[in-house]
Design brief:
The protein has helices spanning about 10-20, 20-30, 40-55. By secondary structure, it is mainly alpha-helical. The protein has one domain (about 10-55). This is BnaC06g40670D protein. It comes from Brassica napus.
Length: about 60
């Protein structure tokens, strides 16, 4: 059972994309980084890698 929303069993996809509590946090963090919040794990990883590479280019 998810400790954050008490609605379903915990899984990676639930904790990052389906749980209303953690999705709210992720949405705020993504918008602060000028990212669109994604619900597909591979897209999230690609966004984070792109963000990291962009920041490394600026240094």
């Amino acid at each position: 059972m998810c400790l954050l929303c008490n609605s379903t069993s915990e899984s990676r996809d639930h904790l990052y994309f389906d749980c209303p509590f953690s999705w709210g946090i992720w949405s705020v963090l993504a918008s602060r980084c000028d990212l669109n919040p994604e619900r597909v794990w591979s897209r999230v990883m690609n966004q984070l890698l792109d963000l990291t590479m962009d920041r490394l280019k600026d240094t």
